[in-house]
Amino acid sequence: MARVVGGERGGRVLLNEGFRYHHNRTARDKIYWKCWRPHCRAGLQTNVFDRQGDHNQAVLVLGASPHIHGEEGEFLDYSETLNRMRLQIRGDPTLPIRAVYDREVVGADARGVENVPAFHSVRSTLNRTRMQQIPPIPANFEEVLIEGVWATTQRESRFLLEQDNFWQYVMFATDQALREHDAQPSTLMGLSSHARDPTISF
Ligand SMILES: [Zn+2]
Predict the structure, then answer these.
(1) 58 and 39 in one domain?
(2) How much distance in Å is there from the Cα of 182 to the middle of ligand 1?
(3) Is residue 145 a part of any domain in this protein?
(4) Residue 199: pLDDT band by 50, 70, 90 thresholds?
(5) For 42-96, what is each residue's pLDDT tens digit?
(6) What is the per-residue pLDDT for 50?
(7) Ligand 1 centroid to 39 CA: how many Å?
(8) What pLDDT is stored for residue 126 in this prediction?
(9) Which of 1, 17, 53, 64 is the most buried (most CB within 10 A)?
């Protein structure tokens, strides 16, 4: 079955029966693809579908011509592995990329570890994927804004307790941690408001 995998710009790479194609042009009733190898003139036509859409959607092959080389085997495993790792990072950008990579290596046993790309060869791509998911680094403390998913736990409970950009501190705590330390949010708020008064020391 033919399917589209991401490229940096998404939806431009098509895999079919062990060969890799790049988008050539889209006509009214067909999408034309050409083999990614410059000296091979093989082409493929599919139905028209949303190339930026769901990667699991069915793609209908309407015609194909022969290649001058064998299947891409290893290369395809490589791009599929990379794609899987990028999906995981998009799903949870707080995961360290090394952890995502290691998990892929552990899970690769059945498929063959030799087809997992070396870490150094995918690190920058994975980092870039991660940076696309997280807010830009603020230039100064005034610009620090913690909101939405960044202010909650992964179970969507409150995590950000207090933030003061003038005194440049941020307090995080879960309700459970506060209970375990027998602390009330109001107590901590009291402490933090004392912190604004430089005459009181701890
Ligand atoms: Zn070809």
Answers:
(1) yes
(2) 67
(3) yes
(4) very low
(5) 999 999 988 877 666 778 999 999 999 888 766 667 777 888 899 999 988 888 9
(6) 84
(7) 8
(8) 92
(9) 64
Residue 77 Cα to ligand 1 midpoint, Å, equals: 17
Burial of 35 (0-12, 13-18, 19+ CB in 10 A): buried
Number of domains in the chain: 3
Q: Look at residues 26, 23, 30 and name the one whose alpha carbon lies nearest to residue 9.
A: 23
Q: Tell me the two tokens of residue 164.
A: 């003061």
Same domain, 78 and 123: yes
Q: Are residues 129 and 147 in the same domain?
A: no
- 59 in the same domain as 7: yes
- What b/e sequence results for 102-122 when a residue is b if at least 16 CB atoms lie within 10 Å of its CB, and e otherwise? eebeeeeeeeeeeebbeeeeb
Question: How far does residue 99's CA lie from ligand 1's centre (Å)?
Answer: 35
Please tell me which residue, 156 or 45, carries the higher pLDDT value. 45
Are both 104 and 150 inside the same structural domain? no
In a domain, 48, yes or no: yes
If you measure from the C-alpha of residue 51 to the centroid of ligand 1, how many angstroms do you get, rounded to a whole number? 21
* Domain assignment present for 200: no
**Which residues span the domain enclosing 175?**
141-194
Is 160 within a domain? yes
Task: Record the tokens describing residue 140, joined without a space.
Answer: 């100064």
pTM score above 0.90: no
Contact 162, 170 (CB under 8 A): yes
The pLDDT tens digits for 1-21 are: 777 766 555 556 788 888 888
Cα 43 to middle of ligand 1, angstroms: 8
CA of residue 155 to ligand 1 center, whole Å: 47
